[in-house]
Amino acid sequence: MKNILHLQLLQVSFLSFLFSGLLFSQLDSSKLNHYNLVADQITKKALTEKAGYNLLGELCEIGPRLSGSENSLRAISWAGDKLEKFGIDKVMFQPVMVPHWERGEAETAEIINGKYLNILSLGGSIATPENGITANVIEVKNFSELEKRKNEVKGKIIFFSRPLDESLLNTFTGYGGAVDQRFYGAVEASKYGAVAVLVRSITTKHDNVPHTGVMGYVDSLPKIPAAAIGYLDSDYLHNALIDDPNLLIKLNLNCKTLPDAKSYNVIAEITGTEYPDEIIVVGAHFDSWDVGNGAHDDGAGCVQSMEVLHLFKELGLKPRRTIRCVLFINEENGSRGGKEYGKFVETKNENHLAAIESDRGGFTPLGFDIDTDSSTLIKIKSWLPVLEKSGINWIKKGGSGVDVQYIKNTKAKLGYVPDAQRYMDVHHSANDTFDSVHPRELELGSASIAIMAYLISEEGL
């Protein structure tokens, strides 16, 4: 038995060695040495100069950047200015009409004869009547439970209390398992005559900072107000309902939706020296929710994308293919920037070889998820020894990003993946501030994306 086990281990080791050799064989030794040198230069430049981190500090001083807001326009102007100063070949502003929702000043949820709960209106919510809504509360964990209790719902406030599943390693999977109650909760509750909804914040941090996010309505049902409630106050409300199932809450919101507003995608590029018509996008979404400063979501991705161009210029790297930075507006509540850019690419019949999106925060690099065919995936995997210079550990087939999905006929769409264990601590909340970003983690992300863009530019796909 021991001999058989030993043989199996030798076979596994041999296969691993063989696979490693196949990866290396994609690049000859002279190319590998050159790319390793460039990767070292990019990583060292990013870590020592911290240009992206400094950009993020400036961006966060402008404040949150919700689509349609004055702040978002100031940030767009700032980004164009910065990119011009880098000496980039082209800087453009692409007009986009975006939703314009404002939170308003009144956001209260008071347990009658009890405490005030910490809440945030969900993005797109309607207001309550001027004097608020006072009603009993029904707690449910999911839509199935809501349907079973539908005869109790009329005239009530529905409290969706299901938390993010913290047993899961992947926090985005946990988020995906809870976000339906935030987006569809008001629709489902309205079916049975509810007057408002409260939703437990989707977070991994057990504090009392509520997390907002977009929610939806349908025209066939009455629209009812919706708000997120802090994690600790969600626990408090759960226990209070056990003690008094008939407790009343008075909810007061005065948010509103205004006419669509004119905004812009910011586009900047370094023109390729040999294949200028083959475009590699590095991008992120420029809008953020209106609490915090949008530092991780997605200021980090934006300054990383900007820094890619800055690193190329500073190091004198002349890419064979065009490297284009796109800062997409309105990902959070409409994705109109991504859609508009996709239409532009289709109309102009542009050839996009690859698109890289960074929208998972400014944390330590792990890998890249890639949406492509198997042969292209194998080719990109062969570059892993170079990408390891910035901390990339793996490359695998997977999804890319919300905005780049609208770029049709792209050979490869890549999602930059950092460690996301703390991402849901800050996501869509007042916790998402500049001081929550570590400069080394952010800069290693910039370097990773820059190295990947450089390799695609030089090797093609």
Supply Rg: 24 Å
Continuous helix count: 14
CATH topology of the largest domain: Aminopeptidase
CATH architecture of the largest domain: 3-Layer(aba) Sandwich
Mean pLDDT: 94
Sheet with the most strands, sense and barrel status? 8 strands, mixed
Gross morphology is elongated
Query: What is the total tally of β strands?
Result: 16
Straight-line N-to-C gap: 46 Å
Please estimate the helix content: 25-40%
- What is the H/E string? HHHHEEEEEHEHHEEHEEEHEHEEHHEEHH
Q: What structural class results from the helix and strand content?
A: alpha/beta
Q: Please indicate the percent range of residues in DSSP E strands (runs of 2 or more).
A: 15-25%
Using brief descriptors, characterize the structure shown:
single chain; 461 residues; alpha/beta; Aminopeptidase; Glucose Oxidase, domain 1; 2 domains; 8-stranded mixed β-sheet; 14 helices; 16 strands; disordered N terminus
What does this structure look like?
This protein has 461 residues and is an alpha/beta fold. The chain is built from 14 helices and 16 strands. It has 2 domains: 276 residues, Aminopeptidase, CATH 3.40.630; 151 residues, Glucose Oxidase, domain 1 (3-Layer(bba) Sandwich), CATH 3.50.30.30. Helix 2 runs antiparallel to helix 14. Helix content is 39%, strand content 24%. The strands form 2 sheets. It has an 8-stranded mixed sheet with strand order 1-10-12-11-13-16-14-15, with helices on both faces. Strands 3-2-9-5-6-7-8-4 form an 8-stranded mixed sheet. Strand 2 and strand 3 form a beta hairpin.
